[in-house]
Each structure stands twice: as C-alpha cells, then as structure tokens.
Amino acid sequence: SGEKLRTISTDEAPRTEVTALLHVHMVKLCYHVSVGWHHDVWMWPDRDKAHPRRLGGHSDDILCVAYVPPNLLVSGAYDGTLIVHNIESGAVSRRVAPRRPHEGGGDPSFSSISSSRRLSHEDPFLYSCAIEAISVLDPERRLLPDCSLVCGSADGFLRIYSSGAMRLLEEVRVCDSFSDGVQHLCTEDSSTFVITGDTTGR
Fold first, then answer.
1. CA dihedral defined by 163, 165, 167, 169, rounded to 10 degrees?
2. How confident is the model over 55-70, as pLDDT tens digits?
3. Which residues of 57-95 are buried (b: 16+ CB within 10 A; e: fewer)?
4. What digits encode the pLDDT tens for the residues 37-47?
5. 166 phi-psi bin (left φ>0, alpha ψ -120 to 50, beta other)
6. Dihedral pair phi/psi, residue 135, rounded to 5°
7. Which residues lie below 8 Å from residue 16, measured CB to CB, with a gap of 6+?
8. Is 45 exposed, middle or buried (0-12, 13-18, 19+ CB in 10 A)?
9. CB–CB of 19/62 below 8 Å?
10. Residues 21, 32: contact at Cβ < 8 Å?
C-alpha cells in the first residue's frame, strides 16, 4: 500500500546521512543495519523495544556494508578502510588499510600493474580510494572453501579478499580512466560473474 509502518531511530544515533542499509537474518534475531556519515555501524533489532547496537572502529564516513554468514559484518569507508565486525561480540575482528595501486611494491598478493599505470597521486582530492560497494561471493560456501568479498573502489579497481583472513586475492582495474570509479556491484549465485556500474554510466 506504500504506507509508512515504522520509523527506526534513537537519540543515541546522530542525525546524519544514511549511505547504505542491510537486513541480517541470524538464528535468534534479525537486524536492520545502517551505515553513514556518523562513522558507526548501527544494528537495529527487528523486535519492539529491543535496544540498538553500535559497532565502532571507523574514523571516516562509511559508504557500504555487507553480511558474511554466520556472524560477521564488513564495512567500507571513504578513506579506503575495510573493517570486519563480529556481530556477536561487537569487536573489530580485522582491519584492512587503504589500498593504493602505486603502493603495491613487492607484495606477492599485488597483481602486476604496468609502469604507465603506477601514477603518483599525492593530492587526496585528485585520488580517492573510497570503498564504494561490497558484495559477497558464495556466502553459503556451496562452491568455495571460504566465501570471498568483492570490493569496488573509487580508484576504478575491483579487489577480492578472503573473508576469513581478509587476504587480498586479486585486484583488477575495471574502469577505462583513472578518473572513473566503481559505484555499485553485485554478484550472482554461481559465483562466476561480478557486475559493476561506474561513475561514467557503464
């Protein structure tokens, strides 16, 4: 019918822009998850009079969030930081620092990039490594031994991490220009394809 059924809010949560929403279904309780410019992950229980939970750890605006069964949330921020939160304990499980292509160096997990692509981006206003989108490959672990996280960034790269150790498995540029960035992405059930949308409408 389009009728507004409920407004979820609390005096504890700052009134700032919400950038992403997620519904998480756990064994005993379901949550509505919200992230945004307040730098925190808020978990709203899908139950009347239940108190919301706040998961901290970020120091910049959070742009996206994903659920990794059975008990992890992964959030990505404007500064390029990824944080893995344990839903049950509320603790930060893992933190991944911003990833910049020209800082690959001798890291064996860094995919080779031609010297013409290793540009120096000294001005943060000209170069952004913001995590714009996160999706989960094979969340039920039907095909892979461990599900993987696919992250799309403002620098035009897709990066794939193992969900357990958050080890970088692969990174590939999917945008044609250094000024383009990945805005949205989605995976599909076979864990074979990743579909992306970028800032130029492709």
1. -50
2. 999 999 999 999 998 8
3. bbeebbbbbbbbeeebbbbbbbbbbbbbbebeeeeebbe
4. 989 999 988 87
5. left
6. -140, 160
7. 36, 37, 38
8. middle
9. yes
10. yes
Nearest-angstrom CA–CA distance, 189 and 90: 29
The pLDDT tens digits of the residues spanning 107-143 come to 343 343 333 344 444 455 456 889 999 999 877 776 6
Long-range own/partner contacts, residues 13-21 (CB < 8 A, 24 or more apart): 13/38, 13/40, 13/42, 13/52, 13/54, 14/38, 19/61, 19/62, 19/63, 19/64, 20/62, 20/63, 20/64, 20/65
Residue that the structure tokens 């461990």 belong to: 146
3-state SS string for the chain: CCCCCCCCCCCCCCCCCEEEEEEEECCCCEEEEEEECCCCEEEEECCCCCCCEEECCCCCCEEEEEEECCCEEEEEECCCCEEEEECCCCCEEEEECCCCHHHCCCCCCCCCCCHHHCCCCCCCCCCCCCEEEEEEECCCCCCCCCCEEEEEECCCEEEEEECCCCCEEEEEECCCCCCCCEEEEEECCCCCCEEEEECCCC
Structure token pair of residue 84: 């893995």
Tokens, residue 67: 């659920």
Query: Against a cut of 0.70, is the pTM above it?
Result: yes
